[in-house]
Amino acid sequence: MYGSVWEWCQDWWKDGYYKESPVDDPTGAATGSYRVDRGGSWHIPAGYCRSASRGKIRPEGRNGNLGFRLALIPAEAAEPKPDTTKQITNSIGMKLSLVPSGEFQMGSAESVEDTAEFFNKTYGLNLKADHLKDEYPQHRVRITKPFYLGTYDVTRGQFRQFVADTSYKTEAEKGREPGAYGWDPDKKEFGFNAKYSWRYAGFEQTDEHPVVCVSWNDAVAFCHWLSKKESKAYRLPTEAEWEYACRAGTTTRYWSGDDPETLAKVDNVADAAAEAQFPDWKHTLKTSDGYVFTAPVGEVQAQCLRAVRHARKCLVAKLTYGCKLALQDKGRLLLRFLNVARNI
Q: For residue range 185-223, what is the model confidence (pLDDT) as tens digits?
């Protein structure tokens, strides 16, 4: 859930909201001027992609590193039971994973000073401690009911189905100021232009990539369409649901641990692949996920899974070979097996 694209959440943003947040199923402020976004993106240093990191943007905002994923809220009579299928696929091919009810500590466990100092020292950022104040105080949150959450971000292909079915025009394609913040390959920076929309954000994407350049209002329109299509309750996740699912029981900076370099194994952030194409980017990870811009949904995780499976096969092969050698000489069975195991 880190990187590739920032993700819209349902909540209105309010400065200092954590100080007044309820314990059970918080849904954010009652009103506001900005909506919450979470997760960081391909363009963002690791310091801004932590589980506790929060962002805000106006609901009409749209740019080339901002997308969304869906939450599916089961009806009261159809709440998933503990033995329910952990992943489902809906009518448009979207996979959703079951998130059980539970509780966690929401927000950052580190002090603002420690967080800023680490990333500034390690990656040469100029991260101001004051910019992190809305991650505090860390507080108890309880998600009282299970729900399904999109396993991946909504893709361009899935959004295309919505547009084809409804003839919907996104905010980037209509209004007094059409366009979005897309990637200008000549200037190597984001810029607002009428040519940018979910159809083209300034870099190559396929239908398997996360849709970008969509506003909060566009994302909500997508939810309404799919809810009507399936007679189910789809919406954007609250930021409490988002962080609860993202942490998945962990208390570290990232789901993958405290070390930012582990992010390249689980998601798509500014890393060595980006620096190779854009040498001026000096705040990148040393490791690489292989993608400069957005990655096809699930691809980075799939690479990690393939690596784990390969390592497991190698381990089994070594053990099997060791056992065969040992069986050739029954008198040295234990010694030979131990020698192989010690060298794995």
A: 888 889 999 999 999 999 999 999 999 999 999 999 999
Tell me: domain 6-297, CATH 1.20.1510, correct? no
Alpha helices in 147-238 (DSSP H): 156-166, 216-230
CA distance 7 to 66: 6
Report the alpha-carbon distance of residue 187 to residue 144 in Å, rounded.
48
Measured between alpha carbons, how far is residue 9 from residues 83, 103, 214 in Å? 28, 19, 13
Task: Report yes or no: 48 and 3 within 8 Å, Cβ to Cβ.
Answer: no
Residue 304 confidence (pLDDT): 37
Q: So what's the pLDDT on residue 300?
A: 53
Domain extents in the chain: 6-297, 304-342
Closest CA relative to residue 114, chosen from 196, 173, 36, 47: 47
Q: Tens digit of pLDDT for each residue in 239-294?
A: 999 999 999 999 999 999 999 998 888 888 888 988 898 888 878 999 888 899 99
Q: CA 30 to CA 230: how far, in whole Å?
A: 28
Burial class (CB in 10 A: 0-12, 13-18, 19+), 325: middle
Place of tokens 């905010």: 171
Please tell me the distance from the alpha carbon of residue 141 to that of residue 143, in angstroms, as a whole number. Answer: 7
Cβ pair 176, 96 in contact under 8 A: no
Secondary structure (3-state) at 238: coil
